[in-house]
Amino acid sequence: EEPPPRPPKGFYIYGDVGTGKTMLMDIFYSHVENTRKKRVHFNGFMLDIHKRIHRRKQSLPKRRLGNMFTYDPISPVAMEISGETCLLCFDEFQV
């Protein structure tokens, strides 16, 4: 017997305005029993990401002239968020 298929890592629901995308996501979200879940508008999520990035950059030591130093805050911020939530539902995501 074959093992059951692995669950998908994500869903992207799209369609015209008023077709029930948000309602479908709300139903799904309400039935997930895990407490480490977050439902957020995409723009609000990105504002939070930028605040976290800014906070991390502000905590770095001040750079002096002639000292080249690069720091990529994306990975630590992603790890921070993954430590807070295991299900992330975006509403109003625009491509």
TrEMBL record:
Coiled coil: none annotated. The keyword Transcription does not apply. One of its GO terms (cellular component) is mitochondrion. It comes from the Eukaryota. Gene3D superfamilies: P-loop containing nucleotide triphosphate hydrolases. One of its GO terms (molecular function) is ATP binding. Belongs to the AFG1 ATPase family. This is Lactation elevated protein 1.
